[in-house]
Amino acid sequence: MQKAVEYIARSAGKLMLEAQKDGTNVHKKEGVGNYVTDCDRATQAFLQKELANVLPQAVFVGEEEGGDVYRPDGYCWIVDPIDGTANFIRSMGYSAVSIGLVRDGKPELGVVHNPFSGEMYSAMRGEGATLNGYPIRVSDRRLKEAIVTFGATSYRKDVTDRMFRTLRSLFDNCEDLRQLGAASLDICRVAAGKLDAFLELRLSPWDYAAGMCVLLEAGGRITTAEGESVRFDTETSVLAANAACYEEALAVCLGER
C-alpha cells in the first residue's frame, strides 16, 4: 500500500507542476492569506478517486469541499492536495501533496511529496521513515542549538499575540527561527534532521496527519503546544520536535522558560 500511495502522490505532484507552468485560477477563502486554486480542487478530486481504489473502506477527509466527515474508528485518509498554497501561487517551490492515513485514531501511513524539489517523505507505522527511499532520523540537537520553524497562522488573528510572545521566547532559547509556509514539509524536515522543531498554534488535521506519521517513525515527538495528544477531529496547536529538544521547547510554549 505504501508504494501505491507514493505513486499517487507523485502523480498528484505532476498536476501541480503542470498548473505551475500553465497557470491556474486563484480564489480567496475566509481570512487573510488563505487561498484555494483550481489545481487544489482538481488534485483533491484525483486523490479521492485514486485512494478509494487503494483502500475502499476508508473515509476521505480533505481540505477542500467534497470529502467525508472524520470518524475515529476504522481507516480515514486525511489529505491536503496542496499544502502551502500561498507558496504555490507565488512559485516559491515549497509546497506539497500531503496524504495521511489514520487507523482507529492513530497515524498509520504518511506520504508528503514536494514535486518542485523531488522530496518524497514516506512512513508506515512500525516500519520507519524514509526520504526518497533512504532512512531518516531526527537530529539530537538541544534547543540552544536548534533551528525552529513555525507558522504564524495569519488567517487566525486570535492567536497572534500568543504566537509572537512564544516566538520571542523561542528565539531567546534557540539558535534561530525560520518560517517556510508548509507545515507538512516543515514537520517532515524535522523528521529528517534538517530542522529541529516546528510550532504552530492553529492547524487543521490535513496539515499534520501525514507528517506526524513520518516524524514519529523517525524518532520525533509531536503534541499540542500544551503537551496534550494531537487529535484529528478538530483544529489544534502543534509542537513537533526531535526527542532531545522537545521538553525544552514545550517548556517555552508553556511559559516556563
Notes on the structure:
By secondary structure, the chain is of the alpha+beta class. The chain has two domains: 2-135, Fructose-1,6-Bisphosphatase, subunit A, domain 1 (Fructose-1,6-Bisphosphatase, Chain A, domain 1); 143-253, D-Maltodextrin-Binding Protein, domain 2, CATH 3.40.190.80. It has seven helices and 14 strands. The strands form three sheets. It has a seven-stranded mixed β-sheet, sandwiched between helices. It has a five-stranded mixed β-sheet with strand order 11-10-12-14-13, with helices on both faces. Strands 1-2 form a two-stranded antiparallel ribbon. The longest helix has 21 residues, at 2-22. The protein is globular, with a radius of gyration of 17 Å.
Brief synopsis:
The protein is α+β, with helices and mostly antiparallel strands.
What percentage of residues falls in helices of 4 or more residues? 25-40%
Main sheet summary: 7 strands, mixed
Structural class call reads alpha+beta
CATH class of the largest domain: Alpha Beta
Strand order of the largest sheet: 3-4-5-6-7-8-9
Distance between the termini: 44 Å
CATH architecture tag of the largest domain = 2-Layer Sandwich
| Binned strand content | 25-35%
- The beta-strand count equals 14
Write down the secondary-structure element order: HEEHEEHEEEEEEHEHEHEEH
Low-confidence regions = none
Question: What descriptive keywords fit this protein?
Answer:
single chain, 257 residues, alpha+beta, Fructose-1,6-Bisphosphatase, Chain A, domain 1, D-Maltodextrin-Binding Protein, domain 2, seven-stranded mixed sheet, five-stranded mixed sheet, 7 helices
